[in-house]
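Lecture 7 notes: from sequence to structure.

We start with a single chain of 213 residues. Read the sequence below before looking at the structure.
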Amino acid sequence: MKYRYVIWDYNGTIIDDAWVAVKAENIVLKEHDLPEIDMEFYLRECEMPIENFYNKIYDFSVCDFSEVAASFMKNYDMIAPQAKPFKEVVGAIKRFSDMGIRQGVISGFETSRLTSSLKAFGLDGYFDFMSGSDDTSCGSKSERAAAVVKRCGYDPKQTLFIGDMYHDYETAQRVGADCVLIAKGHQGGDVLRAYNTVPVYDSADKLLEKLTL
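Now the structure, written as tokens:
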């Protein structure tokens, strides 16, 4: 395997939580007397930074983005304990560790939520770093990723980003690293493949098979 470093996204990549996001979002939409969304709509329209997605379902001339984001996180936190990591992703993390590959996590999730969740799943010990955001806005993580990779001494040419959204590819591009996407998270496989710029796998099993041949 040509990569010595692997950087994971968290939501939708390590943890199976797209369904949590839809449930939490529908609670907020109901609070604003707006139509609910279904998973099909979510997988088709969700994008990062999350404000881009919110602009499709909220009118911010009559409501406040920060309040909507905070309300979403409150509801997400109530439902999230039901979410679990993808078993095949946990297997890949452990396999990479056995191969001596250093790993990290970069997420738009708040740092406290990210670290406590990974610790609860017994995964925190596999990572050199767990880098989350400083607020609930789930904004771009590209600049933060570049800083973390430099600080940890990861060679971008030997680094692979693994995510579930096109923004993960954009983040890898900012760092100068390669990227692959797994179509089991917050953007649908058809959406990801339509970009035609980054490899897309249906599961981490297929990814691991490809990388470790």
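The radius of gyration is 17 Å. Keep this in mind for problem set 3.
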